[in-house]
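Q: I'm teaching a short session on how sequence maps to structure, and I want students to see two examples side by side rather than one. Could you give me a first protein with its sequence written out and its structure tokens following it? Keep the formatting plain so it prints cleanly on a handout.
A: Of course. Example one:
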Amino acid sequence: MYRLISTASALAVTLVAGAAVAQDFRGLARQDLEAAHAQLRDNHPAAVVQGAAGDRFRSWLDRGLSDAMGKIGQVQGGDSHAYLMRYYANGFRDGNTAIRPTFEGLGPFFATTWPGFTTRWSGDHYEVSYVHPGLRGAPPVGAVLVSCNEIPAEDLARTKLDLWEGDLNTEAGRVRTAPYLLWNRNNPFATGMPQFCKFRQGRREREYELKIQPADPASVEAAYRHSVYTPNATPLVVESVNGRPWINVHSLADNADWAAFYGQVESQIDAIRGPQGAVIDLRGAGGTSLNATSRGYGLANRIWTPEFTAPRQPEAGSITYRATPANRQWFVDTLARMEGDPRFVQESGPIIEQTAAIVAAFDAAIAAGQQTFTLPGRPAAEDTGAANPVQGQIVVLVDGGCVSGCLDILDLLTRLPNVRLAGSTTGVDSIFIEPTIVRLPSNYADLSYGHKAWTTRQRADNQPYQPAQGLAYTGNPADEQAVRTWVGTLFGG
């Protein structure tokens, strides 16, 4: 077996928040892992909810802590601290559980060294997606990775990417992390850079010696953008593509310009509702804020009408809460912020009443010594017979970047008539919803997890949306012109 070129950094001092700070990051990692474990053990609803989702959580809670603790000796600084925190959080296989650095981390376009080319995930294999201009002796674009240093590609990916960069048990996790397979991202826990890799073209296999070289930011960003769809700097905009409105919603963030975007939609509503059809592009539309779902519902209500969409919303069912003082305090603090905002008091009285009722339910459950309590969701809206104002087909375009609130939006859109889901498999999320965020003792990381259990959600735990046969895009997701041309064919054009 060929040797590995080490990826470990020799630095014990890391740049955090713009200043060089010498820290005992091994001690901080131990402290943060223990604190995250205790917070999840004592307050996460999965600890007391029955079923596969709860079983998955409980199986990793202690085992994962022991596993991560065994790797603390390799922590060298802020970046490796962040990797170890991510490893523990990702082990729950729950997209709603995360530990993120509070400082500016490595980012998606970071590498210290690379072989001058990169890979993407294409259905069931890794293939070359980009070769740096002028690089000689590299495998061509489209070549399928077979093995590196005699290690099968799948085994290499599991060792180097799974949990460290994302969840390889999901299609979305495969796609997003694929470019990093042959990059050095300064992760001392993963395998090093391979020296030789074997690729297949047709029936022919050939081994290449990798030309490991420093990675400049512009080159690796270009490589990543050639491999994974990455939204541009204007995530919310309505365009005309092939004679149809193309409604771009590539972010559900609170700080996006929603007022201007909704204004665009309203000003073009006749065209959007026309017989030629329209596209709602939700690729990359991640969003974990409490407002993410309402942003998408606001869009749907403008394209259709609130009277038409409300009775077609998925049933709310019931929500299970874990009755702990810390969870109660979250709602107490939330209620105080609501009541302290005069405009919110004026416009959202029912939400304040509902939150106060939840606090009262916490008080009753804790006083009775109950571990959990369950409250019903909102009642279903009555169908008033409102007409569908949309005449043509609506193609909803998705990819693995559609997660969290985006999935909630799909729960509604896929129930509307003449809507077809196209693109590639979405991300997943668990039944543990609405994030609570806890600062860990080091101040270098925040723990985020869903503090409610939506046990009756109609979409199953960790269940993605997958476009039906004929609506799945199999080309290069980063080739925007090819994607738009393909979408045009779905309308018969």
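Q: Perfect. Now a second example for contrast.
A: Example two:
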Amino acid sequence: MQQLTIIGSGPAGLTAAIYAARAGLAPLVIEGLQPGGQLTTTTVIENWPGSPDGIDGPQLMADMRKQAETFNVQFKSGLVTRVDFKKTPFKIFVDGQEVETRCAIIATGASPRMLGLDVEKKLMGRGLSVCATCDGFFFRKKDVVVVGGGDTAMEEAIFLSGLAASVTVVHRRDELRAALAMQERARSTPNIHFIWDSVIDDILDISRNTVTGAMIRNVKTNQVAFHSCDGIFLALGHVPNTAYLQDQIEVDSQGFIVVQKGSATNIPGIFAAGDVADPVYKQAITAAGMGCMAALDAERFLKGL
């Protein structure tokens, strides 16, 4: 039986593993289908503290994993398909295999909502982004598009307006869903413009391996027009990776795990860290910080048993 099992191997999971291993808990990390998490699809990270020249996302996660290995963290590849947190020891099922554990940290992250275009995976990090805070710096004095109409989209547009030459918001409806104050701020920003009742049918140019624009279709007239731009930011929100939990733990209306008193969930001995429990910040550094908190909370819990 495991003392501590960590589900997820992104910044939250690996930070938790490093702290837990140094505390002598011999944690097991279940890596999931994408070891390293979202950062493995990111190119240069310029806002990671201590990296003045920026750091490559996959390299950062490889370094974190290597550091965890130096403390003899155990790793198990595979996907968690379901859990049983109704009684102790807790049970975690990895591709059909059962893992019993006294304590667990859930760090399975969240996935950005995408448009569903084939080109998205190929142009991600090459002019296509899901995080203005992460990548906006690369688009100084350039023309960008933000897709969405909620709070996330307006936050991204307002942030980018201080960097980019112009920001065009593409929204499928003729009114925004964002909070009124945020709407008014975006509308009053001189270099933020809106294309209403429209969706993106295609992103160009895959032959150049970079974003040069988008084919935008008006949903009322079905007319399609090319819109030139240097970057596209998808601001459609995030989906927390909690489907496998199957009502085993308390989540909010969006599916994010509810935490209280640090990283504690409603089940004693089950903790959560990173984007899976963070509907607000969604940054690598905050995920890592939450991973540290979860490991310390798990250590206190196990010592109190």
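Q: What should students look for in example two?
A: Point them to this: Residues 13 and 107 are 5 Å apart (CA to CA). Also worth mentioning: The radius of gyration is 21 Å.
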